[in-house]
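Handout, tutorial session.
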Amino acid sequence: MTTRLAKCIAVLTLTLSVLMTVPASASASVVRKSQYRVWIGQVQRHGKHFDYAGRPCAAETDALCAGYIAHYRIVASNPAARRALRRLNGQEARLRGRLTPARDARHEGTLLVRRAKASSPAQTGS
């Protein structure tokens, strides 16, 4: 009886672990492709990393955006973005990236940025 119960528990555990990991890995590829958006905000250097201070939603979002300033950690995904962030320190910028949940208490999220450029005054209203 105990071996039968142990086998059932093992099968149930294996089934649950498979069900919990497959959707996460399948949705990760969709997020990478579809969630790169334009974020307009201030680039600020904090020690060895950069932070974003600006709207809590992407610029091209049609939905209602909350009226507070979000603080996201910026992670450059390539050398060109890293160089651009150094040049844009202290300026408003257009960042092409995707938002992921925060991994620390100081940031509300992490922006994985693949492109960064200075924001002109005409672009800030979009």
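The second record follows below. Compare its token runs with those of the first.
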Amino acid sequence: MINLSQRGDVDVAFNMLSSFEFILILHMMKEIMGISDCLFQALQKQSQYIQNIMQLVCSTKILIQKLREDGWQNLLKDMIFFCDHDIDILDFNSTYVACNGCSQH
């Protein structure tokens, strides 16, 4: 049986997990982990030559930089499509105020 305190905790956790910010972070992590997966798998193999690893490091760095510079539009399209199910989408042109009460914009 769930008491009122636990119910409040569940409601808060649900609201946080269904927020646009949380889902955006998850999608960014998915993209970055997908880019770096080849490098991580190669690093786990003991038979890799240092030159191959260095090439993978360089290509991973380039892909992450490309995501940083050019990947936002595709990421936002994916986010808007994903959040079309009862999740409020943020207006990126509005003023941002930090949740901790600070008046940082």
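Points raised in discussion: The CA atoms of residues 16 and 78 lie 20 Å apart.
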